[in-house]
Design brief:
This protein is mainly alpha-helical. Among the domains are: about 1-45 and about 145-285, no CATH class; about 500-755, no CATH class. Helix content is about 35%, strand content about 5%. Strand 11 and strand 12 (about 460) form a beta hairpin. Helix 9 (about 235-250) packs across helix 11. It is an enzyme of class 3 (hydrolase). This is Trehalase. GO terms for molecular function: alpha,alpha-trehalase activity. It catalyses: alpha,alpha-trehalose + H2O = alpha-D-glucose + beta-D-glucose.
C-alpha cells in the first residue's frame, strides 16, 4: 500500500477497478461478534440538461494542467470540463467518483471523436453511460469484528427512549464501514484496464455517508469520538493506520480519499485522534509509528501553510498558520460550481487570468478549512454566495487552525514524555509561541472573544463565529477569562442567548442571508461538541455561581459583552413562530425575545438541578438541544423505535417526502427548527452521517443521566425545501415548542400508562 501511494504521487493518479459483485447481505450483530454490513449502491443515471439533440454550451478556455493532478479524465482538462458543462449530473462529484469501464486510453480515444463545438447532450450522455460505471463501486462494505450491540456507555443513558435511540445510532456504524476492494485493483497508470479517482487504502474506515463515499480527514475525529464509545477500537486503529499510510506516501493527510484532494488537507487532527485512542485503550504500541509521522505532518504544515505575522498590537512577530492551497483550476469534485463562480455570465467585466487563478486558489483554500463556505472568510460577508468571488481565506489567520496546531504540539510533548525529553521540550517551546500569537493577534480582551486576524486589514475581523471556542477547547484560556466568573460566563454568553432565543443549537455565525452552509441558521455537530468541551475546560472555581439572568426589561442578549456579536439585538436572525403566518417571527428584542426560557432551564434543555452552576446548566442545555435536533429530524424523516416511538403517519411523512424512509441522520441542523436538517451550500444536505453519529454517542455517554426525551414540534408544510440524499424534507417553521404538540415525552408516558402509542 505504501509503495503504491508513493507511486501515485509521481504519477499523479491512483487507479482501482470495481468489484465484480457488491455484498448486500442484511446487517446482523451478535454479542461481541461480527456485524455483517449492508452496502446499497445507487448509481446516478446521466440525464441531459437540455434536449438530446442540443449542443452543449460554449466553454471558457481550459485552466492550466495541475501538477498535483495530471490525469486527463478526473483532473482538470478538456474531458472533465466538457462533462460538467453538459450538466448530465446534478452533483459534479458524481462523475469524478465513477470508475471507467475501459482503459484510460480507450476512454480518451472515445472522447477525442467529439467535435467540442457541435457535441450534443445526447452524445455526452451516451459517452458517460458507455465508458463509466457506478460511483463508489471501488469500495465494499466492511464487516466490523468484535461488534458489541450493547456497549457499556448505554448504561449511562437513563431515559428508555433516548437509550434506545443511542443504541440505534451505534448500529449505524455497520452501514458506514468500508474497505477498498484490494483484490480488484487496476494495474498502474497509464497501462491499466481502467481508471478511478479513489486512493486505495489498506485498512477499514468509516465514511461520513451520502456523497462522501471515501475516508475524510477531519470528519474522522468526531467519528472516532463515537467509535470510542462503541468500543470499536480495531476500527479506530485501522483508521489511524490509513492516515499514517497517507502521511508516508504523500507527506500529509489529504482532505479525503480521492486523487482530486491531493493538493489540500483539512484541519490537522491526526495526533488528537491518536492521543484519544491511546488514552482510552492504553495501546501505546501505535506510537512507534505515529510519532515520527506526526512530526512529518507538522513539517508539512510548517513548510506549506505557515507565515510570519507582525502584530499591530504589540509589534511582536509570530509564525502563524493559514489555509493556502496551490491551485489554479476548478476543484474536480465541484468543477461546475467553481467554473460558474469564476465565469459568471451575469458579470459585465470578466476576471483577468491572474484573478481567475487566484479565485480558484481561494476556493480550494476555503475547502481546506472544512468550512466550505462561510461569510467568515469573505471580504464582503454581506454578499453571501456572490461573495465567494471575494473569498479572502489565504489572508486570514484562523482561530481554529492555530488552536489545533497548538494542542498538537502539547499532545506530542506529553506523548514523548521523558522518553524523548529533547523533542518534548521543543514542542513545548513552539506551542508557547503559537499560544502567544493566538492571544496577541486573535483574542479581544474587551469583547471576551477570539476573532480571525485579517492580513488585508491588518486587524482582527469583527465577525463572531463559533470558532471562538476552539482555543479553550484546545487548552488556551486567556487571563481575562480566568479573572472572574462574570468574564468566564461572558465568553459563553452567546451560547446562553441561543438556547433561550432559538429552538436549536448554536449556529456557525449570526449571518443568515448568505445561503452558505457554514452560516446561520446551520448548526454543525463538530461545533456543538467543541462548545461543550470548551465549557468542560473552564476551571471549576469559576463555575460555582448560577446562570446569570437579565433584568426584567431585558433579554439574554444584554448579558453578552458589548460588541462581541457585532450585531444589535434587533439585527439578529429571527425565530419563526409555530403555525404562524409566513415570515412571522418571535419578538426580536426585550424579554419576550427569549421565547424558549423556562424556570431554571429552556425548552428541550433538560431539567435543572439544585445548586447547578452556570457552566453545568449550559452543558446540560446544549447536550439536550443537540440530542433533540438529531432525534426530532430523524423522527420527522421516518425514524421509529418499536414500543417507544411510533413512526409518524403517512400524512406527515408525505410533507417531508419520507414515506418508506426510516429516518435520516443529517450532517447539519437548523437552529430554528429541530425537526429539520440545515440547508444551503454547494450540494444537497447529506444523510448518514459520520460526525453526527459520533457526537450523538459522545453526548449520550457523557451526559446520559441529564438527557430528557425531547418535545418535537408538529411538521407543517412551508415553502422551504431541504433535499437529502434520499428524501426531501419540507419542515415546519417552529417556535414556542413548550406549548405545541407532537411531544415525544408524552408519547412515552402514554405508552407506559396504557400500552397505547399516540
Amino acid at each position: 500500500m505504501v509503495s503504491s501511494l508513493k507511486t501515485a504521487v509521481v504519477a499523479g493518479l491512483v487507479h482501482t477497478i470495481l468489484a465484480a459483485t457488491i455484498n448486500t447481505t442484511t446487517t446482523t450483530a451478535a454479542a461481541l461478534g461480527t456485524a455483517v454490513p449492508t452496502l446499497t449502491i445507487s448509481t446516478a443515471v446521466a440525464s441531459p440538461s437540455a434536449s438530446l439533440g442540443a449542443t452543449i454550451p460554449s466553454q471558457a478556455p481550459l485552466p492550466p494542467t495541475q501538477g498535483w493532478c495530471i490525469g486527463q479524465i478526473f483532473c482538470a482538462g478538456s474531458l472533465l470540463q466538457t462533462i460538467n458543462i453538459a450538466q448530465v449530473y446534478s452533483d459534479p462529484k458524481t462523475f469524478v467518483d465513477k470508475p471507467t469501464s475501459k482503459s484510460s486510453q480507450q476512454v480518451l480515444a472515445d472522447f477525442s471523436n467529439f467535435n467540442l463545438s457541435t457535441v450534443t447532450e445526447g452524445q455526452i450522455v451516451n459517452f458517460v453511460d458507455n465508458d463509466f460505471l457506478g460511483e463508489g463501486l471501488e469500495l465494499e462494505a466492511a464487516a466490523l469484528t468484535n461488534f458489541n450491540p450493547t456497549p457499556a456507555f448505554l448504561n449511562n443513558v437513563t431515559d428508555p427512549l433516548l437509550k434506545a435511540f443511542a443504541q440505534t445510532v451505534h448500529g449505524y456504524w455497520t452501514q458506514l464501514a468500508r474497505n477498498t476492494n484490494q483484490s480488484a485493483l487496476c494495474n498502474e497508470y497509464p497501462g491499466g484496464t481502467c481508471e478511478s479517482s479513489l486512493i486505495p487504502l489498506n485498512h477499514t474506515f468509516v465514511v461520513p455517508g451520502g456523497r462522501f463515499r471515501e475516508q475524510y480527514y477531519w470528519d474522522s475525529y468526531w467519528i472516532i469520538q463515537g467509535l470510542l464509545q462503541s468500543e470499536l477500537y480495531e476500527t479506530i486503529n485501522a483508521t489511524l493506520q490509513n492516515f499514517m499510510d497517507e502521511i508516508e506516501g504523500f507527506g500529509f493527510v489529504p482532505n479525503g480519499g480521492r486523487i482530486y484532494y491531493l493538493n489540500r488537507s483539512q484541519p490537522p487532527l491526526f495526533i488528537h485522534m491518536v492521543y484519544d485512542y491511546v488514552n482510552v485503550t492504553g495501546d501505546t504500541s501505535i506510537l512507534q509509528r505515529a510519532l515520527p509521522l506526526a512530526e512529518a505532518e507538522l513539517a508539512w504544515w510548517a513548510n506549506n501553510r505557515t507565515i510570519q505575522v507582525l502584530s499591530p498590537y504589540t509589534n511582536q512577530t509570530y509564525m502563524m498558520a493559514h489555509y493556502a492551497v496551490n491551485n489554479t483550476a476548478p476543484r474536480p469534485e465541484s468543477y461546475l460550481t467553481d467554473y460558474l463562480t469564476v465565469h459568471d455570465p451575469t458579470l459585465s467585466t470578466p476576471l483577468t487570468g491572474n484573478q481567475t487563478a487566484e479565485l480558484y486558489s481561494e476556493l480550494a483554500s476555503g475547502a481546506e478549512t472544512g468550512w466550505d463556505y462561510s461569510s467568515r472568510f469573505e471580504a464582503i460577508p454581506q454578499l453571501g454566495n456572490p461573495g465567494l468571488r471575494s473569498l479572502n481565506v489565504k489572508n486570514n489567520i484562523p482561530i481554529c487552525l492555530n488552536s489545533i496546531l497548538y494542542k498538537t504540539r502539547m499532545l506530542l510533548a506529553e506523548l514523548y514524555g521523558t522518553s524523548n525529553a529533547t523533542a518534548s521540550s521543543t514542542h513545548l517551546q513552539v506551542a508557547a509561541s503559537i499560544r502567544a500569537g493566538i492571544l496577541d493577534l486573535l483574542w479581544d480582551p474587551a469583547k471576551l472573544a477570539f476573532y480571525d486576524f485579517n492580513l488585508t486589514s491588518n486587524a482582527r475581523n469583527d465577525i463572531f463565529t463559533a470558532a471562538t471556542f476552539y482555543p479553550v477547547w484546545n487548552g488556551i484560556i486567556p487571563n481575562e477569562i480566568l479573572a472572574s466568573q462574570s468574564n468566564a460566563f461572558g465568553y459563553f454568553a452567546a451560547v446562553n442567548l441561543v438556547v433561550n432565543k432559538y429552538n436549536g443549537t448554536v449556529p456557525v455565525t449570526f449571518i443568515d442571508w448568505t445561503g452558505l452552509q457554514w452560516d446561520a441558521p446551520n448548526c454543525w455537530p463538530p461545533l456543538q461538541y467543541i462548545i461543550m468541551q470548551a465549557l468542560r475546560a473552564i476551571p471549576s472555581n469559576l463555575t460555582t455561581n448560577g446562570l446569570p439572568t437579565p433584568s426584567s426589561n431585558q433579554s439574554t442578549y444584554d448579558l453578552v459583552p458589548a460588541g462581541q456579536l457585532g450585531f444589535k439585538e434587533a439585527q439578529l436572525p429571527g425565530q419563526p413562530l409555530l403555525g404562524a403566518k409566513a415570515n412571522q417571527n418571535a419578538t426580536a428584542t426585550g424579554p419576550a425575545a427569549d421565547i424558549n426560557k423556562l424556570s431554571g432551564t429552556v425548552v428541550n434543555g433538560g431539567n435543572a438541578t439544585a445548586d447547578e452552576g452556570w457552566r453545568d446548566t449550559l452543558q446540560r442545555e446544549m447536550a439536550n438541544r443537540y440530542y433533540t435536533s438529531v432525534l426530532c429530524s430523524w423522527h420527522a424523516t421516518g425514524g421509529s423505535i418499536p414500543g417507544l416511538l411510533p413512526q409518524l403517519p403517512a400524512s406527515e411523512l408525505n410533507l417531508t417526502n419520507s414515506i418508506g424512509n426510516t429516518g435520516n441522520m443529517f450532517e447539519k441542523f437548523s437552529n430554528l427548527n429541530v425537526d429539520s436538517s440545515g440547508y444551503g451550500g454547494e450540494y444537497t444536505v447529506q444523510a448518514g452521517f459520520g460526525w453526527t453519529n459520533g457526537v450523538l454517542l459522545w453526548v449520550a455517554s457523557t451526559y446520559g443521566e441529564q438527557l430528557v426525551a425531547p418535545q418535537c414540534p408538529p411538521i407543517i408544510a412551508t415553502t422551504t425545501t431541504t433535499t437529502t440524499t434520499t428524501t426531501t424534507s419540507t419542515s415546519a417553521a417552529v417556535g414556542l415548542q413548550a406549548s405545541s404538540g407532537a411531544v415525544i415525552t408524552a408519547m412515552v408516558m402514554a405508552f407506559m400508562a396504557s400500552a397505547f402509542l399516540l
